[in-house]
Each structure stands twice: as C-alpha cells, then as structure tokens.
Please model this.
Amino acid sequence: MGTNNRNASQTDVPSVLNSSYANVIDNSITIDDTVTYNKQDSCLYIDPNDLYSTSLKDAFDLSIVHLNCRSLIKNHDAVSDLLYSLTHCSFTIAAVTETWLHDSISASLIDIPNYTFIRNDRLDKRGGGVGFYIKHGFCYSVRSDLRNISPHFESLFIEVKNCKDTVIIGTIYRPPANSIPSFNEDLSKLLTLINTENKLAILLGTLTLTLFSMARTDM
Model:
C-alpha cells in the first residue's frame, strides 16, 4: 500500500470505528449485570471526528489507540487511513483485536507504512487474534512470558521505555461465549503477576462486557 496523498477531513473517519466511541453519562460500571462499581467521570470521551482537533503529542510522549478490526484483511485500508489521517496525534502504538488472521496470511498484506506489526493469531479455529502496530524507531520488547497465559482470553504484551518509566502494554480479546467468572479470575492472576514488577501497565482490548451503561440520542 502506497502513501496516501489526500488531505484528511472529518468525512474520512472509517465507518468500522463509528461504534467505538460514546459519551458516558451515568455514574456506574456494570459487569455481567451482577456487580456494580462506582466510578468517577474523570475520563475524556470524544467522538471520532473530534480526534481531528485533539492533540495528544503535547500532553504525552506515548500515545496509544485500540481498534477492534473484525477482520484486519477486510478493514486494513480503514485502519491505515485512520492512522494516516490522524498524523497530528501521531499514535505511537495501535493495538488491534479480532484480527481474524492465520499463519497463511502474509505480513505484506497487512503492512502499514511507518509501522511494525506484531501479532498473535488464533490457532485452533477462525476469528479472534490480537496484535500491535508499533511506530518505526520506537524501542520495544515482546513479553512472551505474559502471552497466552489463559484459555479464556487471547493476549499479546510488549514492554517499552517511556522517558524514565518502563511500561507494560497489553492487548486482550475475550470471546463473548467464554466464562466471565473464569475470565475475571485469570485476569486477576495476570494483573497480580504484572504488579510484582512494579511497572506501569496499560491494558487495552475487547472484553465483550457491559462496562458502561450508555444512553445517546444521536447514535
């Protein structure tokens, strides 16, 4: 895929991403309709179009975005166009889930200019899969010891240096049919393991859980 020479505009937002953002207006997080946690509305939620006027580089040395692809082959151009059109954000890392890749798919088919792609494909059946697009020149190492530690979710972890901090970044996909209690138990074990390293950890992904009760009249 060659470099795209067109100018980005608000109409260029890939439709695959339109359902990924929403305004949160209530004050609770509900998981599996049985457990409710109080939360503070301290996070900024923005519409995809707002990204064109939002600068991340001024505030952070490391900027990360997560995209649920539902077939990276099918939506490769949409993902590539998004990363290209948001050059002012200059995302360092793009975590992707539901890549739907397998080992017969060549890396050249999913290449994005100026990014290195690493992946963890689902092996036993179709679907699933996770990966990272990492900007060229950004130093990282793959944390193989944290990969595939649970049968209840798919994951891939990397470790990066951000200024003085060492950061562990993980992308996780939980298939919707998998047991939620088992997922919670294994995720808790994973977080406990990471916590022993006394490093900043950032987890992204598709958990297929009802984390927020949302209400929007414009969707």
Remarks:
- The two ends are 33 Å apart (CA to CA).
- The longest strand covers residues 154-162.
- The longest helix spans residues 180-195.
- The helical segments are 76-85, 180-195.
